[in-house]
Amino acid sequence: MALYDLFVKDIEGTAVPLAQFKGKVLLVVNTATACGLTPQYEGLETLYRAFHERGFEILDFPSNQFNRQAPGSSQDIHLYCTGRFGISFPQFAKIKVNGKDTDPLFALLKSEQKGLVSKRIKWNFTKFLINRQGRIVKRFGPMTRPEKLRKAIEKLL
User: Fold this and answer.
1) What are the distances in angstroms from CA 87 to CA 31, 41, 52, 106?
2) In the chain, where do the E strands start and end?
């Protein structure tokens, strides 16, 4: 299955085809609102504002799998993120990124990773940079601050 064949659910639970992002540079991130890394939302929004008009999208997928650090409903998370960090990029419904109920998007993202000892998502704010053809260019760990992705994004735009 290819990236653009998949559907994800928005914060209302409506299926959204990833095909609508075809031709864009994507940054797919699993996030949490009660994590020490949550302030990365500010850096993500900065990237989004800098590059969105050039065909860049951030797709935000909250996950409650790591110490239950994404409490509340998808709508609660969205209200918190827009209010506290002023995010304007798309947020989707909470998902699982590991285990038997892994969301198909994250199953695909992890399956295409070459040379990793563990393909598991280790923590919140793991980031996948995807080129305009829908191929994963690089996976960035949770501690990689969004600002550090600027050059890699510019190269793909």
Assistant:
1) 13, 7, 13, 22
2) 7-9, 15-17, 25-31, 56-62, 127-130, 136-140
The pTM for the full model equals 0.92
Which residues lie closer than 8 Å to 6 by C-beta, 6 or more apart?
17, 18, 104, 105, 108
SS3 147: helix
SS3 of residue 156 by DSSP: helix
The model's pLDDT over 126-147, given as tens digits with 9 standing for 90+, comes to 999 999 999 999 999 999 999 9
Q: How far is the C-alpha of 136 from the C-alpha of 108, rounded, in Å?
A: 10
Q: What are phi and psi of 82, to 5 degrees?
A: -75, -35
Catalytic member of 35, 107, 137, 152? 35
Q: What is the CATH number of the domain that holds 39?
A: 3.40.30.10
Q: How many domains does the chain have?
A: 1
Residue 81 a catalytic site member: no
Q: Give the range of the structural domain holding residue 90, as residue numbers without chain letter.
A: 3-156
User: Which tokens is 97 given?
Assistant: 């990124």
Parts of the chain with a pLDDT under 70:
1, 69, 113-118
